[in-house]
Amino acid sequence: MLKRTSLLFAATLALGVSVQAQAQSSTITGAGATFPYPVYSQWADDYQDESGVGLNYQAIGSGGGIRQITAGTVTFGASDAPLSAEQQERDGLVQFPMIMGGVVPVINADIPAGELKLDGETLAAIYLGEIQRWNDERIAALNPELELPDTRITPVYRSDGSGTNFLFTHYLSQVSEEFANTVGEGNSVAWPSGVGAQANGGVAAQVGNVRGAIGYVEYAYAKQNDLNAVQLENSDGQYVAPSAESFAAAAANADWSNSPGFALVLTNQPGEQSWPITGVSYILMHKQASNAAASRSALEFFDWAYANGEAAANALDYVSMPDNVVELVKANVWSQIQADGQPVWAGAE
């Protein structure tokens, strides 16, 4: 089981670093997104039990992960907002998808769990500060069967550079022209109302502590904090609940082979069962490895996770990458990570 206290409330989180790995000069170091931290944590524990090699991952947000891998202070960075192929080329990086999941709006209001329905425009109006009470007529129109409380709404947003921010604002910008024109999308944006919190764990804690709050977190954080998740209307006009199945439905038609640098965003995908804020978490590594042993150890870990991590991912309601995507990564991305003109990982030779 995950160590929830350290997982959800620490800004910087370290997974076990084995003495053996240090002796081999193959400590795996990474930093970035909090979105995939629960599954990376579980994989790290399982991998260390099996191999003796540990992982030190700092869950500091996608923006921090991009900065650290660009500066070369970690072996890999993790980001939920993909870098374009041009950005990767400029900084000498490669990018590959590691895991999929969903960003979920969660509330703290006197409304039965899982029963509140919102569409994109209404959710955007809440975050724009236009809808300020839970019994607002626009929310009531979507939920005629519910008795809504006359409670003030407090929107909670990510105050750090965050891929979760990117996915949430990317979605709202697609479904609300006003949101797109006034706030827009990005890892860090100027929110017109609400209160900020650091990382997925911070948003989950803030929503849990403030009556009337609404926030957005990766689904594992919503489940393991017993937060009340809403149903969202998707691009097919269907209200869907967040689940591994609805995340997988959104990813079903993703065209990975025609996405240069694997730069693909899965928000607002078609399909009756598709969750509209589905996201992919990416790994970033340097093409020219400054420490070949460390890069090789990282790729061995990711290879193990692709092959053995599905059960743990499913248990935490993430979605594993399809086999055809994994093969594309191994053939087209990992082979580019080299030292002295040779791939650092034997499987890429």
UniProtKB/TrEMBL annotation:
Q: Which GO terms describe its molecular function?
A: phosphate ion binding
Q: Which GO terms describe its biological process?
A: phosphate ion transmembrane transport
State whether it acts alone or in a complex, and with which partners, per the record: The complex is composed of two ATP-binding proteins (PstB), two transmembrane proteins (PstC and PstA) and a solute-binding protein (PstS).
Domain of life where this protein originates: Bacteria
Specify the signal sequence span: 1-23
What family name appears in the similarity comment? Belongs to the PstS family.
Cellular component per GO, a single term: ATP-binding cassette (ABC) transporter complex
Species, as recorded: Halotalea alkalilenta
Sorted keywords for this record are: Phosphate transport, Signal, Transport
This molecule's function is given as: Part of the ABC transporter complex PstSACB involved in phosphate import.
What's the protein called, per UniProt?
Phosphate-binding protein PstS
Which Pfam families does the UniProt entry name for this protein? Answer: PBP_like_2
Domain (PBP): residue spans on this chain = 21-306
